[in-house]
Amino acid sequence: MAIWQNIGSYFWGNPSQQSASSATGQPLCLTITAYRKEGLTEDEYRSYLTTKHAPLVRPLMEQYGLLKYTITFNTNSSRKLMGRLFDPQFANVSDYDAIIQIVFKDVQDFVNMKANPDYKKYVIPDHEQFADTKRSKMTIGQVVPLLG
């Protein structure tokens, strides 16, 4: 039994040190399955996110202790690669333009960042420059590292 407790502690942390935001004590990941604003090309979308939006929000993320911020662009050319990967079991190919992931220790860190006056003044309205906020979807979950 002790070995399973040790393995559990390795993956999910010590219960006495768990965050109120994550029952396992693992970091949380906000995942956004994002669509670009109508009228933007794939190149314009990627350029805006990487050269304008990310530099705008990254300092706030650092200030509030967020751990990781990544964008995976799902382009027409990268979708074509799926033909080499999928089989009949997994034949549905996503049409999202990007997967955005933001990792943090506690949901309150993200809440605090969103309450910052600069976030409200600059970041929130900036979303309207590149994002289809009606089609994009979000979810949050616990990060369990298994490789890397």
From TrEMBL:
The organism's place on the tree of life at top rank: Eukaryota
Gene3D superfamilies with a match to the protein in the record: 3.30.70.100
SUPFAM superfamilies, sorted: Dimeric alpha+beta barrel
EthD domain mapped to chain residues: 37-133
GO molecular function, one term: oxidoreductase activity
Family: Belongs to the tpcK family.
Name recorded for this polypeptide: EthD domain-containing protein
Naturally occurring in which organism (per UniProt): Talaromyces proteolyticus
